[in-house]
Amino acid sequence: MLPDALKETIRQLWPQAVALSDDLHAHPELGHEEFHASQTMVDLLRKAGYQVEYPYLDYPTGFRGVLKTGEGPSVALLVEYDALPVVGHACGHNVHGSMSILAAMALAQHKELFQGTLYVVGTPAEETAGAKVGMAAQGAFDGMDLAIMIHSWSGGSSIPDQDVLSLGSYDIRFLGRSAHAAGAPWAGHNALTAARKFLDLLDACRESFTSDIRVSSIITSGGRATNVIPDQADVRMEYRTDSQRKLKELDETVHACAQGAAMALKCQVEFQPTFDSFMDMVRVPALEEYSAQLMSELGRTIAPVTPPMGSSDVGNVSYHCPAIQPLLTIGETFYALHTPEFREETIKEPAHQAIADGAKLLGSLVLRALTDEEFRDAAQKSYLAQKEKKLNP
What we know:
The protein is an alpha/beta fold. The chain is built from eleven helices and twelve strands. It has helices at residues 4-26, 35-48, 93-108, 131-137, 191-205, 244-264, 285-297, 314-318, 340-345, 349-371, 373-391, and strands at 51-53, 63-68, 74-79, 117-122, 146-148, 151-153, 166-175, 214-221, 232-241, 268-273, 323-324, 327-329. The longest helix is centred in the N-terminal third of the chain and has 23 residues, at 4-26.
């Protein structure tokens, strides 16, 4: 667990982190528009002694703080801060982003405790395109000994790690031929019907889907007048599964259904990825065991890691270095993420207390990764074995 001096520093800095969380709640910003949130966090990190790149890479609201205390291992604390349309901070990024910042500020006051490099990486737009996807692809996490963040949760138990599904997404356009819907419908090729039949074909495939597969779609356009055969229809879709191999297979199914529907209705079909794919999570048992131990020491009730249900761009990070994303509860009553009820939990006293506990958990994991070679080696060995299983099942 943490040295007493670091615990005391977290206690002293905690009001600043609570104020940060509540400020973000009051000023929700969508992905890639988080200028207030990112600037506020950058100011706190610079004041704490970090050298900060802002903007970072090609992300105007991304940042990377660097605290180097000599040659040695490297760890990344990940920070999220974007909100959702309409419901604002209903995923708790204001809370768990503030946990990372509090841990970072406290560790900066105790550089004597470790040797190596601590990175604090601000990662915009987790709710949309996921900046961690591009950051990972550009090598931001290559060679790291650990990348870590906590995600807010609710209910009676916290969870040592979060498993996630891989995620692909397309905007699919069907192109047909317009005609008068009453006077000469035979002269048209109905793009809306092609789009509908595409969705019917996908539904017909569901009986052979494994339990981890999720497919969701909406029709975003389908004609402009009821008396005109639509010559264009657009579908936005997402599809998820628990491995990169199965995501590729599911992608082939999506293409086959769309092309089959287009062929049957004498239409053309075009595919445009809406964002780069999110990857599933390479879980690291050695890290999860220590995460559970730390939660127990904090007096938290612990539940086993649940089967993957959603997606997170932390999955992409996990294919480049050992990574973990514990779920820390911010209230005893369970509310689903992305709901107004969960949003309001983030400004209550239990959530404020969770910011301090989260900073302690993060600080403990960071310190051990930076100071315990045996732990690092065990985590690396565990990570490589799990990654190999993912890549070569």
